[in-house]
Amino acid sequence: MEQLEAAQDAYQRKRIEYLDFINEKFREQGHAAHTFKDVEAAIREYNLLTNRTLTLSPPPKFSDFYQPTEKQKAEEIAFIVIGMTVVYFVAQRFK
Fold it and tell me: 14 and 45 share a domain?
């Protein structure tokens, strides 16, 4: 979880740096019609005007840092099936 948090923080910093860079370049070049708040739109516009390609990697996800084993997946499915069976019988009893 700490690694995911650190990766998300780094992604947000990088995202803000991209926005600041693009907004500054637009101001310098006189293209700034407005200040961008969306990274994807800003990158698209920058790429169109400068014919340079900037990309931002996708945000980090929990699955990037944790891959459950097949045994863990099987145990989770068994837990869900057993739990639902118990809930069904308890509900039938109090019906």
Answer: yes
Task: Give pLDDT, residue 54.
Answer: 65
Sequence-ordered list of residues with C-beta below 8 angstroms from that of 57, at least 6 positions apart, any chain: 11, 14
**Same structural domain for residues 38 and 60?**
yes
37 and 73 inside one domain: no
**pLDDT at residue 33, as a whole number:** 58
Predicted TM-score (pTM) above 0.85: no
